[in-house]
Automatic annotation (TrEMBL):
It comes from the Bacteria. Residues 1-25 form the signal peptide. PROSITE patterns: PROKAR_LIPOPROTEIN, TAT. Keywords: Signal. This is Family 1 extracellular solute-binding protein. Gene3D superfamilies: Periplasmic binding protein-like II.
C-alpha cells in the first residue's frame, strides 16, 4: 500500500500487502569507534550498529560503493545499539549529525523533521521512481511525515518472533503454545525440568517491551496503542492496558523469565545463548536474531533445533493473532546540515549502493533475512534458510496490521519514559496502576 496520502495508521500500523520493512542501512564498519573512507569534500559520514552478520553485510556494501566512487566515499563508524541511540541523539541535537542518519523512522524521524534536521526527499524519490518502485511500498510508512518522505528504506523486514528450542520441547514432552493460557502452563512445565521458560535480556529494556507490544495487541487490538500514538488524552487508561500489565506481572511472578534476567544483556546476545544452549525453552525477539543464532550457535540452527512462530492469541482478546509487531522498516535520512557535496554522495549511495544485487543476496544467504526488495521469491526459496524466510515473508504479507515497535513509533521523550517505566515494571518498582499514570503524563510529548 502506498503511503501518500498518508492513512490514519501513518507511522504505526502498516498493512503488509507484500512484506514490509528494512533493517537499517547498507553499510558496515570494522568495529566500534573505527571508520573508513577518505577526507575529500564529497566524503559522507555514516554511523550504524554493530553485530554480525549484519555488520559485515553493511561493511561490504559500503566498501563496494567506496571502490566504485573513490572521490565521493562513505566514512563509516559502528556502535553498539544503546550507545548508538545515545550518540545520535546528542549529535543531532548539537547540529553535528553524520551525513547519513541511520534509524527506525516513526517518532524519532518525526522529531528530526520537526527540528529541521533532515532533508525532504519527496521530490528526489519522484525523480527517481525506479528506486522507490523496487522496494516494498509499505516500508515507506515510517519514512513519511506529513505526507512527505524523509528517509530511504533499506535492508530487511523484521517482525518479532516467538522462538523455541525444539529439542528442549521434545525432552519435556511439550508442544508450542497456541494461546496465552498454554504459555502460562508451559512455565510450570519447564521450571519443573530446571529450564528457564523464556529467555529475556532484561538489562536492555527494549527487549522487555516486546512482551507488552504483543500482549496489548492480542488483548485489545491495534487500536489501543494507536490512540496513544495519536496523542489521545489518557489513552493508556484503556482497560486492555491494565489487563496486559497484570498478565505480565503474573508471568514474572510465576518465574517465567527465571532468575537474574535483569542482568542478561542483549548487546552480547546472552539471551540468544540461553536458548540455543538449552538453558531456556523460548525467546521473544526480533527476526534478526535468527542470523545471529545461526552464526553463533554452532549447529543449533543447522541441525533443525530452532523453532519459530507468531505470538499466540489471548483468550477473549480482540486482537488478530495473525498480526505482528516489530520493524516494518529502518531508514536512512540525510542530515540537512551536510554540505551539498555530502548530500549528493548520500543520494548516489541510495541509487547504486543501498540494496544492490550483492547486498540483497547477502541478506538472504548470509543474514537469513527477507530483504525489502521486490522480486526475491526465487532466491528466498533457494536459500538454506528457506523455511524461516518463508515464515517471515508470510507473516509480514498476511498480517492485516504490522505495527511499528513502540519505542520507534513514539517521540524520543515518550519512548524514554516508556522504556524506563517498562524496566521499573519488570523490577516490581511500579504497579500496573502507577505505570498507567506515569505513561499518561507523557502522551503527545
Amino acid at each position: 500500500m502506498e503511503r501518500s496520502p498518508i492513512s490514519r495508521r501513518t507511522l504505526l500500523s502498516l498493512t503488509a500487502a507484500a512484506g514490509a520493512g528494512a533493517a537499517l542501512a547498507a553499510c558496515g564498519s570494522s568495529g566500534p569507534g573505527t571508520s573508513s573512507g577518505g577526507g575529500k569534500a564529497g566524503t559522507a559520514s555514516y554511523w550504524f550498529l554493530t553485530g554480525q552478520p549484519g555488520e559485515g553485510i553493511r561493511q561490504a556494501a559500503a566498501e563496494r560503493f567506496n571502490k566504485a566512487n573513490p572521490d565521493t566515499k562513505l566514512q563509516f563508524t559502528a556502535f553498539e545499539n544503546d550507545a548508538y541511540k545515545a550518540k545520535i541523539k546528542t549529535a543531532i541535537g548539537a547540529g553535528q549529525a553524520p551525513t547519513l542518519i541511520w534509524g527506525w523512522g516513526g517518532g524519532g524521524l518525526k522529531s528530526y523533521v520537526d527540528a529541521g534536521q533532515v532533508e525532504d526527499l519527496t521530490d528526489w524519490f519522484g525523480q527517481n521512481a525506479p528506486i522507490k518502485d523496487k522496494l516494498f511500498p509499505t516500508s515507506f510508512g515510517p519514512a513519511t511525515i506529513n505526507n512527505k518522505i524523509y528517509a530511504m528504506p533499506c535492508e530487511t523486514v523484521q517482525p518479532i518472533v516467538l522462538y523455541y528450542n525444539k529439542k528442549v520441547f521434545d525432552q519435556a514432552g511439550a508442544k508450542p503454545p497456541q494461546s496465552w493460557g498454554e504459555m502460562m502452563a508451559l512455565v510450570e512445565t519447564f521450571k519443573g525440568k530446571g529450564i528457564t521458560p523464556f529467555s529475556l535480556a532484561g538489562k536492555s529494556r527494549w527487549t522487555n517491551m516486546m512482551w507488552l507490544e504483543f500482549l496489548l495487541d492480542r488483548i485489545g487490538g491495534p487500536e489501543v496503542f494507536q490512540s496513544v500514538f495519536e496523542g489521545e488524552k489518557d489513552a493508556w487508561s484503556n482497560p486492555a492496558v491494565t489487563d496486559m500489565l497484570t498478565k505480565l506481572v503474573q508471568l514474572i511472578d510465576a518465574g517465567g523469565f527465571g532468575k537474574g534476567y535483569s542482568s542478561v544483556d542483549a548487546g552480547n546476545n546472552a539471551d540468544q545463548a540461553l536458548l540455543y544452549t538449552g538453558k531456556a525453552a523460548m525467546m521473544l525477539h526480533g527476526g534478526w536474531t535468527y542470523g545471529s543464532m545461526k552464526n553463533d550457535g554452532g549447529k543449533f540452527v543447522a541441525d533443525g533445533n530452532l523453532g519459530w512462530m507468531n505470538f499466540p492469541g489471548v483468550e477473549g482478546g480482540k486482537g488478530d493473532p495473525t498480526d505482528t509487531v516489530g520493524n516494518p522498516g529502518q531508514y536512512l535520512a540525510i542530515s540537512s546540515k551536510a554540505t551539498a557535496e555530502q548530500k549528493e554522495t548520500a543520494k548516489k549511495f541510495f541509487q547504486t549502493g543501498v540494496l544492490d544485487a550483492d547486498e540483497t543476496k547477502a541478506w538472504i544467504n548470509d543474514g537469513g533475512s527477507v530483504p525489502v526488495v521486490k522480486g526475491t521469491e526465487s532466491v528466498l526459496a533457494a536459500s538454506p534458510d528457506a523455511a524461516f524466510l518463508k515464515f517471515v515473508y508470510d507473516t509480514s504479507v498476511n498480517a492485516k496490521v504490522f505495527a511499528q515497535s513502540w519505542d520507534q513509533a513514539l517521540s524520543p521523550t515518550a519512548a524514554e519514559a516508556l522504556l524506563d517505566n517498562i524496566a521499573k515494571l519488570f523490577q516490581k518498582q511500579v504497579s500496573p496502576q502507577q505505570w498507567v499514570t506515569n505513561m499518561n503524563q507523557v502522551i503527545g510529548k
